Amino acid sequence: MRKIVFVLVFLFFLVRLPFLDKTFLLYDERDTALTQYSLAKTRKDLYGNKTPLTFSRISPQAPLLAMYYGIPFWSFGLPKTVSTARLIYMLPATLIPLLVYELLFAILRRKKISLLTAAIFSFSPWVFHISRLALEINLAFPLFLGALLFQVKRKLPLSYLLYALTFFSYQGIRPLILVMTIAIELFAYLQKKELKPTTMRIASHIVIFIFLLLASFVIEGNFQKRGSSEIVFFSQQRLSQEINNNRSLSQSPKILKALFDNKVVAITDYLSKNILSGINITYLFRDSDYVPIYSNGVTGQFYPILALFLLFGLFALGKHKKVDYFFVSSFALLGLISSVINIYSLSFSIRSLFSGIGFAFIISLGVIEIFTLLKQHKKLVSYGVGGFLILIVAFQASSFFYRYTYQRPVWQAELYNESERKLALYLLDSNTKYSISSVNPFSHYLSYLFLSPLTNQEMTTSQKELNKKDEQYDLKGNIFGSCKVNSIDFIKAPASSIIEETCLTEKTKNILENTNTLSYKTILYSDVNPLRSGKGVKFYIFN
Fold first, then answer.
1. Which residues contact 296 (CB under 8 A, 6 or more apart)?
2. 178 SS3 class
3. Starting at the edge strand that comes first in sequence, how are the strands of the sheet with 497-500 ordered?
4. Secondary structure (DSSP) of 207-218
5. What would the pLDDT profile of 387-398 be if each residue is shown by its tens digit?
6. pTM for this structure?
7. Could you tell me how far CA 322 lies from the centroid of its own chain?
8. Residues β-bridged to residue 438
9. Alpha helices (H) in 341-417, listed in sequence order
């Protein structure tokens, strides 16, 4: 059976490898990769801090291990590209099928359902998309699965080590560490009814978690600040904003009143609605993640046909009534905790990756249940229905991969920062040195910095540029400067300039678009129907 698992691991690697650079890096990916590259080449972060323990003024503000993890790869001389930045984090995620199988087999002692769950989970749109990105979850999640596996096998020193590594890899998975360590011990108690050993182990898990928490207070100066602004139990003001901004919540005046009269009622209502969103059939099988830049953009977390198997899986779960089945199924709810309690960025696809194992397990039960029922019919009927279901799964999977590869990059370009890559590539191909005016010169500079071939000296120079107080950054003669919205007005275009569309006044834009008096070129954020969504960035180039 493990030979089949290793085949799955190999296929999981191969299927995610092509087209890693179809879309440009998200800000989190870019800032992480740049920081690691800077540390590898100069032993300093982007702002010249020597081997820092905390990372601020960049998008992810990721923990210690996640930032230092990529340094050896860049030190070995890998080219600084979008593909390599993602490949570095794709490698540990490749172990997901193996780790899911081993964890479930350690709990269930059943090979077939463990293998089927690992396959359904790993090859779902949910995991396929997230595990291709240069995000710290792809380091933290395998470590977390390994920690759970060692805890189930009672190899606690190794388990504690991996929990610690998980803790300092991704902040979004930290709440699950305490929850799952206790859940595993309670499950063990139901099997052996050993109260004292269970109590002692739970106490030790809590002590270890508190120790890690205190260590993070010392290392991460922003932990308390972020916790008070992002976690629902501590952020009254943010909770108020989220309820006011959320239509489903703000429709009820009683909820808004409860926010100020009874914080517990408001929090409970907020949490319950988030939980319902996380287990919603529409979200799981049709819609993608609520945060557009993290979503796969073309389907739900699982293929639509699997909704049928989920229904039969719930039926099978009730029929079998096995404690271990219920325990693994509970991952679907327990895994949502990290997303549900966070009100800064509710993203089920990333923070709640673990919940997918629970859903995949229930779906696997449904697959087995349906094919068991089919065996009771004539071969012609069972083969016909079974083949039809397999054909639908294959069609939906093929449709997903096609749309993900060819349609999603267009949508992503319109939603996000593909224009930054196009601007950087234009500057790298041009012999002219430009003065670039944009609303966010810092981000455009970082994207240009990432895509530019850099010597160690140029990397050191860029650190000084980023430490400047004014919003003007120089790299290889191209100067990125700040402008305000609708602030630039001219009749004669400035020479050797690139100006973001939002910086121009309506009068100037009308002159540019409706007359032939000024000569210019443009950089659009999407090559296909670029103005469809009305979003994105357009640049005017004046030579």
1. 125, 126, 128, 129, 288, 289, 349, 400, 404, 408
2. helix
3. 472-475, 478-482, 435-438, 497-500, 539-542, 521-523
4. HHHHHHHHHHHH
5. 999 999 999 999
6. 0.90
7. 33
8. 482
9. 348-351, 355-374, 379-406, 408-415
